[in-house]
Design brief:
With 158 residues, the protein is mainly alpha-helical. 34% of the residues lie in helices and 3% in strands. Strands 1-2 form a two-stranded antiparallel sheet.
């Protein structure tokens, strides 16, 4: 439906009475809240009557209690284990690795020196304890990452 002269007059009256755009849209019917806002803007209607602050019911705002922030967790350095070697002094390769060995790759796969850690893996993981720490980092929320970044900047500047 378009804006007829009667509807525009009704809009002006309801706007002056202090109704919200959604309330006006419901009363006029067949238009949306955004259509009301657009028409009000195009008509240049300002200075709407709003109810005095004391007339509106006040809701009690409960303040959120600040919870203490956890301390920054500094991870202990990971102690790398030397890769296991077999009885002939050979390191574990793609051809000799089994499901009971840590599959953490060491070195460049395009060289002959490439091998695997081969220590016993953690239960349910392809890696040993030391390499699980490297492979599976716990996720952090954005807020925690930002806080840690700010804390590192603070430490760098002190």
């Amino acid at each position: 439906m378009g804006w007829t002269d009667e509807r525009v007059e009704q809009l002006k009256q309801l706007w002056a009475d202090g109704l919200s755009a959604a309330q006006i849209a419901r009363q006029i019917g067949g238009i949306t809240r955004n259509a009301v806002i657009g028409k009000v803007h195009r008509l240049g209607l300002a200075g709407r009557a709003t109810p005095a602050r004391a007339d509106r019911p006040r809701t009690q705002i409960s303040r959120r209690v600040a919870r203490p922030r956890p301390a920054l967790i500094v991870q202990a350095p990971i102690v790398e284990k030397d890769p296991l070697v077999d009885e002939n002094g050979r390191k574990t390769t793609v051809l000799t690795i089994s499901d009971r060995m840590c599959k953490w790759p060491i070195g460049d796969p395009s060289t002959a020196e490439f091998h695997f850690c081969a220590h016993p893996p953690r239960a349910g993981s392809p890696y040993c304890d030391a390499h699980c720490v490297k492979a599976f980092q716990p996720t952090q929320s954005r807020r925690d990452r930002e806080r840690d970044k700010d804390y590192r900047r603070y430490l760098a500047n002190t």
